[in-house]
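Reopening this ticket.

The earlier resolution said the output was attached, but the attachment link was broken on my side. Pasting everything inline this time so it's all in one place.
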Amino acid sequence: MKHITVVTPCFNEEGNVEELYRQTRAVFDTLPAVRYDHLFIDNCSTDQTVAILRKLAADNSHVKVILNSRNFGHIRSPYHGLMQADGDAAILLVADLQDPPELIRAFIDHWQRGAKIVVGVKPQSEESVAMFAIRRAYYRLVTRIADVKLIQNFTGFGLYDRQVLDALRRIDDPYPYFRGLVSEVGFDAVQLPYVQPRRKRGITSNNFYTLYDIAMLGITSHSRVPLRICTMAGFALAGISFFVSLVYLILKLLYWDQFSLGTAPLLIGMFFLASVQLFFIGLLGEYVSTILTHVVKRPLVVERERINMKPELQ
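Inline output:
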């Protein structure tokens, strides 16, 4: 009998974790040939999420819980939970019920037919039109400039075979862009489309900073194109500056008394070049920050407690 581990990262999801567990269990009740565990990794919630998880684990030994010592962010904690999965395959399923548990049946069906990676993609969403348009534009940008072919409209929801998980463990990335690593390992992924519903309970913990963080992580982890654009832009701006200065010199020599340079071009040029320099320095800083994260190599998370689980996998 095959063993599946469902991994659910959560933070302040007291209104969703119990319903998610119920829906997931209902799906696996229709799959008698598959044994499953449900692993919740809590990122130091401040509401009743932990109490609910303790109750679920007490009622069912197949519910396993990792409690982090603090909030380690939306990138490290889910990945750590996935790395602790000990099944023949793992399914990453977030707690907000925006990824439908019903799709698990199709995931497992494709996996049993030989697929190593089966993911859900959301070409349509019930979220705001503006936000979805921004997300799609970002996915297209990163896909175009990345060193590997990334999956568009993919947030991590999917099934990953043990062979894939073992390959990810060998990469040992301390701050992983999971969506990119899925493409990096090289296995063909089966893509199943679904319409992402609106969040019905609770408030998302994502804000502008967390979205910016994962967006920049995706770019700096899998593309050197921005750095090369900076280099080419530097040459281009130097050429333009030389051409403009040459034009001004010629005009001044031809019309010495009539031609006045004025302060406006100087101020505009100075502020323009300063803003371009700040942008390039900031972009370079993002790459340096990524290097620093890998050099320091802190653990993904520090666990405070495990419930219904063996000691941490190494």
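Reporter confirms the inline version is readable. The first helix runs from residue 17 to 29. The first strand starts at residue 2 and ends at 10.
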